[in-house]
Amino acid sequence: MTERNEGNIMEVRDLYVRFYTYEGVVKAVDGVDLDVLRGETLGIVGETGSGKSVTTYAMMNMVPPPGRITRGRVVYRRDGKEFVLTEMPESEIRKLRGSDISRIFQEPKAALNPVYKVGDQVAEAILIHRLDEMKERALETLKSERGVFPSLSRSVIDRSLKFEGDPLVRLLKRIPLLRRLYWKPIKREARKEVVKLLGLMGIPDPDRVYDMYPHELSGGMQQRIVIATALSCNPQLLIADEPTTNLDVTVEAQILELMKDLKKKFGMTLLYITHDMGVIAEMSDRVAVMYAGNIVEVGDVITIFKKPLHPYTKGLLEAIPMPGRPLKDIPGTVPNLINPPSGCRFHPRCEYAMDRCKREKPKLVEVEPGHWVACFLHHDQAAEVEEG
C-alpha cells in the first residue's frame, strides 16, 4: 500500500491477529495492509470467515479474548494529529471510541440491552463523550428557571465545568438530593438530543420511542436505534459491520438509503463490511476483497466490477445470480485458520494455482494506479508499473 498519506484517515500496516484456543492458534488476520481515505465509503467484502469483522475490531484495538494483536500498526489521523491505536493505553483509546471512531454492530438484538429503554442507551454515549456540551446546554436552560432547586443545579453544574475533578463537586454528587439536581437537567438535555437524532433516523414519534424497550421494536427499528447510538457523537469514521443482516429486502433498502443520507449529512468516512457484492456496488467508492485473513485485491468499485484480477474476486462476481447465466460457485470452502494452507491461502480453490502459489505468499502489489492485487499472475504487470 501507499506510504504515509495525510489524505488517509486511517492506515493499517502489517496487521496480525491470533486467537489462542484449546484446539490451537487461529491465524485470523495475516499481514493486512489497508488505507482508508478521508470521506470515502470503503467496502470490505468476502465470505463468512474471511476475517472482515476481526480486522475492523483490531483497527479499533478491541479484539475480543482470547484474541490478540501480535504484530502491526494502526494509525488514526485527526486535525493533523496521529494516534497509533495499537500502542496507546486503553484509557486513551476509549476517548476515541464512540466519539471519533464508532461502530454499528452486526446484530442489533445483541447490541441493545433488553432491560433498558432504547433512548437511555443512545443517551449513554452522549453522556460519556459529550458531557460538557450537555452541561453547558443545561446551564442555558436553567438560566430561565427561578427557584431554589434550579439555582442549586446551576451552582453544582457550573462548578463542575470550571473545576474538573473538584473534590467538593464529587462530595456534593454523593448526596442523593444534590446528585439528582446535578443529573436531572443534564439528562433532560441529552434526551432532547436523542429525540432529535431518532427523528433523523426516520423513526416516527421519536419522543414515544425513546421510552420503549428493544423487544417492542421491529428489527428495522432496532437497527435504526443502533445506528443512532453510533452517530450520537458525530464520529469521523463509522464502521458498519453487516448492518442489514437478517432484515428483509425492503427494510434493507431503507437502511442502506438512510446510511448514504447520513454519511452526507455528517460528512463522515464509512467502512462498510458485507458479503453481498450487490450492496458493495450500491454503497462503496472503493472495495477491499478479503479471503482467509488476507486482503487479496483493492480498487475503486468500477474497476473491481469491470476488471477484477484476483481469481477469488472473479469467483465472487460469477456467483452473483444473473438472468440468462448459470449460477457458478467457488469450489471448496474457506480453510480452517488453525492450519491454513501454505503460500497463497486461496490456492486449494484456485483453478490457476501454480507450484509457486503453494510455497510463497503473494504480496499486495499495485498493478495500475489505485488497483492492488495479491496474486502471482499479476506480479509481472506490477513490475512494469514500477519501472514506468
Structural category: alpha/beta
**Strand proportion:** 15-25%
Average per-residue pLDDT, rounded, comes to 89
Low-pLDDT regions: none
Number of strands: 12
User: Mind summarizing the main beta sheet?
Assistant: 8 strands, mixed
Shape: elongated
Radius of gyration: 24 Å
* Count of DSSP H/I helices: 16
Name the helicity range: 40-55%
Q: What strand order characterises the main sheet?
A: 6-7-8-3-9-10-12-11
Helices and strands, in N-to-C order?
EEEHEEHEHHHHHHHHEHEHEEHHHEEH
How far from one another are the termini?
Answer: 18 Å
What does this structure look like?
With 388 residues, this protein is an alpha/beta fold. It has 16 helices and 12 strands. It has helices at residues 52-59, 90-96, 108-111, 118-129, 131-142, 148-162, 167-172, 176-200, 206-210, 219-231, 249-266, 277-283, 301-306, 311-318, 355-359, 379-387; strands at residues 8-20, 25-37, 41-45, 67-78, 81-84, 101-104, 237-241, 269-274, 286-291, 294-300, 365-368, 371-373. The strands form 2 sheets. Strands 6-7-8-3-9-10-12-11 form an 8-stranded mixed β-sheet, sandwiched between helices. α11 links the parallel β7 and β8. The radius of gyration is 24 Å and the shape is elongated. The model has no long low-confidence stretch (mean pLDDT 89).
